[in-house]
């Protein structure tokens, strides 16, 4: 299989975990390039539910090398917890998990800073997960961060933390808060992590370069999604990393010339967690019904997700930014019983009709969705595994979305299980997976 990147085409939670897990069978390496333990991938295998926050879901396949890139930020407490939970459920990690020496470490002061920042935003809260992800990236950009590789030289850790500590204490003083970090105890804890994680910490660009030279295939896994990308998302209601496909190059040290293709994951409708505009938000009891049917509650936080109709303006934009060769449409089955289904095809902004996604949030906030209404199919599609077996209105829905966003829909997911997936024979995916 070629080296492909899988990224979310909307605001996340599109079901990337399941697709990455499914395609992991075809590759030797799965590498994650961004984010921290704010992600939550749910994978169901033979009825057993695994939720992974940090470790690529490829870990559930024995023998696959899983790589955590330098574009990630890693909370070593959370990492050890996830490793222990997987072990307790019989997943043998062996030497199959490698962590970048360049990934930045999330520390207790990052969580404290995030809580303060969200509190100060008041009404304009971003709705972050309060796990310290954003401030860890801020320390990285501010050149005062601590990296996983630093844990291997504990004698230098206290010195390397000095600037981050000064900055944190300065902010606390300004906010009239007492600093709440015990730095001496932290240095001791970090030395312990360095000791235990030593065999896993490596130069992942070199590891991946060698795997590619051997002819091994890599699946690049993005966390969050395009509309949450720091540069291309709905700023400032975004995450702090490069979630779109471009993050592969910076987040793993793999050159763009070694990425052969991109697969986007889009839900058959739209969801988003947290604040920020969602033009096609459904509202009322129908939204609640879809939320329940789709189990739209955060895998990491349990927060209810806001639900909207499929927004073709958003997905068309994601196709452009990521260069998707194909899309996997997930959760089609959630729409099974609706008599008709709306799709947002453009935005009305004052007297203008916008067909391209705007960068300016104040424009987006003022937009009214323009809908096209398509017929529902009214019969269950759960577990359908061939495109021609879908009801004709469901086939029509898929074809219409594909035409609107300008990209083939080569895969459709019709249920949470790995096996409830169909790949269309005519799609570019079929040639990738031969
Ligand atoms: P991710 O972060 O993009 O991996 O998405 P999540 O794991 O947060 O959310 C996807 C949820 O939808 C999980 O609970 C999956 O088991 C479930 N899921 C994935 N694909 C389908 C599908 O086609 N139909 C249904 N009903 N559920 C699905």
Provide a quick synopsis of the model.
This protein has 434 residues and is α/β, with parallel strands linked by helices. The protein is 32% helix and 21% strand.
Q: What's the level 1 CATH class of the largest domain?
A: Alpha Beta
Spatial sequence of strands, sheet with the most strands: 9-7-5-2-10-1-11-15-19-20
CATH superfamily of the largest domain: Adenylosuccinate Synthetase, subunit A, domain 3
Q: Based on the structure given, which CATH architecture of the largest domain is correct?
A: Alpha-Beta Complex
* Backbone CA Rg: 22 Å
Mean pLDDT: 94
Helix % is 25-40%
Give the overall silhouette.
globular
Q: CATH fold name of the largest domain, please?
A: Adenylosuccinate Synthetase, Chain A, domain 3
Tally of distinct domains: 3
Account of the protein in words:
The chain has 434 residues and is α/β, with parallel strands linked by helices. It has three domains: 4-101 and 200-262, Adenylosuccinate Synthetase, Chain A, domain 1 (3-Layer(aba) Sandwich), CATH 3.40.440; 104-197, Adenylosuccinate Synthetase, subunit A, domain 2; 265-431, Adenylosuccinate Synthetase, subunit A, domain 3 (Adenylosuccinate Synthetase, Chain A, domain 3), CATH 3.90.170.10. It contains 13 helices and 20 strands. The protein has helices at 16-23, 76-88, 108-121, 133-141, 157-175, 183-197, 204-213, 247-252, 284-293, 312-322, 361-366, 392-405, 428-432; strands spanning 4-8, 29-32, 41-45, 48-52, 65-68, 73-74, 97-100, 104-105, 201-202, 218-225, 261-267, 270-272, 306-308, 310-311, 326-330, 340-349, 352-354, 368-375, 409-413, 421-423. Strands 9-7-5-2-10-1-11-15-19-20 form a ten-stranded mixed β-sheet, sandwiched between helices. Strands 14, 16, 17 and 18 form a four-stranded mixed β-sheet that branches. The protein has a two-stranded antiparallel ribbon with strand order 3-4. Strand 19 and strand 20 form a beta hairpin. Helix 3 crosses helix 4 (133-141). The termini are close together. The chain binds guanosine-5'-diphosphate. The site of guanosine-5'-diphosphate has 22 residues, from helix 1 and strand 3.
């Amino acid at each position: 299989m070629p080296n492909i990147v899988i990224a979310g085409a909307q605001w996340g939670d599109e079901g990337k975990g399941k697709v990455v897990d499914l395609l992991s069978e075809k590759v030797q390496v799965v590498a994650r390039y961004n984010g921290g333990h704010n992600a939550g991938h749910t994978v169901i295998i033979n009825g057993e539910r695994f939720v992974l926050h940090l470790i690529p879901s490829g870990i559930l396949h024995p023998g696959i090398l899983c790589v955590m890139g330098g574009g990630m930020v890693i909370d070593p407490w959370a990492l050890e917890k996830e490793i222990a939970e997987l072990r307790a459920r019989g997943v043998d990690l062996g030497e199959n998990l490698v962590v970048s020496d360049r990934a930045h470490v999330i520390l207790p002061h990052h969580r404290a800073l995030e809580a303060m920042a969200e509190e100060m935003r008041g009404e304009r809260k971003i709705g972050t997960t309060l796990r310290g992800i954003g401030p860890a990236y801020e320390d990285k950009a501010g050149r005062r961060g601590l990296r996983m590789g630093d844990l291997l030289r504990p004698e230098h850790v206290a010195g390397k933390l000095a600037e981050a500590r000064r900055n944190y204490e300065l902010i606390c003083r300004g906010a009239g808060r007492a600093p709440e970090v015990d730095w001496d105890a932290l240095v001791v804890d970090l030395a312990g992590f360095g000791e235990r994680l030593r065999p896993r910490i490596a130069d992942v660009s070199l590891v991946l370069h060698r795997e590619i030279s051997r002819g091994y295939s890599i699946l690049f896994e993005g966390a969050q999604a395009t509309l949450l990308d720091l540069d291309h998302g709905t700023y400032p209601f975004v995450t702090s990393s490069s979630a779109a496909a471009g993050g592969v190059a910076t987040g793993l040290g793999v050159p763009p010339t070694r990425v052969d293709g991109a697969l986007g994951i889009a839900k058959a409708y739209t969801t988003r967690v947290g604040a920020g505009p969602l033009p096609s938000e459904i509202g009322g009891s129908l939204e609640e019904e879809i939320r329940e049917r789709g189990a739209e509650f955060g895998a990491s936080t349990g927060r209810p997700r806001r639900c909207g109709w499929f927004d073709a303006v958003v997905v068309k934009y994601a196709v452009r930014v990521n260069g998707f060769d194909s899309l996997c449409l997930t959760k089609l089955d959630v729409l099974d019983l609706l008599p008709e289904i709306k799709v947002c095809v453009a935005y009305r902004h004052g007297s203008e009709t916008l067909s391209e996604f705007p960068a300016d949030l104040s424009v987006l906030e003022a937009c009214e969705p323009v809908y096209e209404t398509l017929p529902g199919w009214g019969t269950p599609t759960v577990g359908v595994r061939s495109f021609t077996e879908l009801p004709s209105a469901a086939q029509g829905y898929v074809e219409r979305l594909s035409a609107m966003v300008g990209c083939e829909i080569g895969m459709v997911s019709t249920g949470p299980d790995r096996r409830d997936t169909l790949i269309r024979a005519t799609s570019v995916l079929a040639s990738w997976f031969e």
